[in-house]
Amino acid sequence: MMFIYRSAFIFTAWTIGFTLGSRCYSGYSWGAWGACSHSCGGGFKVRHCYQDGTYENERCGTFCFNGAEFYGGKCNCGPGTAGYCCTDVAECASNPCKNGGVCIEEINKYRCNCPAGTTGPNCDDILECSSNPCKNGGTCHEHINKYVCSCVPGTTGPNCDDILECQSNPCLNNGTCLEHIGGYTCQCLTGTTGYNCVDIPECISNPCQNGGTCVDLINMYKCDCPPGFIGVNCEKNLLALHDSVCRTGSRPSCYIVFRTKDSWQGAEEFCEARNGHLVVPEDTDEALYVENYLESMRVRYPEALFWLGAKKSGTNSPQWVHSKHVNTFRWPYGVSDDLPGTQCLAMDGRYNFKWQGFSCDRPTYFLCEEKVPFRLNYTVPILG
Question: Which residue has the higher pLDDT, 179 or 340?
Fold first, then answer.
């Protein structure tokens, strides 16, 4: 009976010891509960470790995990492990968190606190370029929490989606191009219009008269007139209906009076086109000759006012065209050449064709003085 009892006790003790992982070294035998510390390891008490990291005091045969060695009454952990039994691996030691993520140790695992723009267990960067955000051939560059597009010439914007339309100079006729997202606008100069500042075709209205050829220009046109016609629209016929008289003697001249009215400048240009100029009475004899001639035609010219070839500005003396000296003065009684502002001189039939000052842009009759009567090489129709 005793043998059987002893065998049962040893089996039971061994079973308990194995379950708890207890081991006795150097031939020590499993003893009673309270004698364990005396039968193992030289009289000190140690902890016994389990796979789940828990332990029990007052047990024999401490087991150290992950290659740790037991001495000095404890498990001495190697690099990368921690805890009473060296069961916890220091996962953060390998710096698993990327892109500035912060590694936090936990039991047998780690956790990453990830910055914005990263995701996943290890804070991998979100690949913004994977969606191909750069358009029109732009190249995508990854950055933390963002991407940058390198745009090809002619495109711009965060995604290279705006084409720089102004690079092709779409605004014509010196118009100014203004870029917009997805388009452009032209600021047009006067005389141009439309989306691209096309020239307003002034010639479309056929402004040139008497066979003149219209040439479109920016904000204007010009008429190339046939021989015998002048004016902005070739409207002035150099052989228009007129009256004339020629004076012989030491200063022969012909005086041509036209049955049309014009401003002082227009009249002077007309006379110059006929190789003459507005009449300049250089002495009293010439002035009286012209005055008597005009007096003889009062019926034909009811408004008896005719431009002279002189301008007057304030207190200055009259400035005569084509003559530096005029030796006669034909001002009406009580009127002098002290004219206000800028005025042009005319012979006034109300005062026996003596001189008066009038606004230079007033349309009135005029006389051309010509040394040789104007002629053309071929016939031009005489228009009234």
Answer: 179
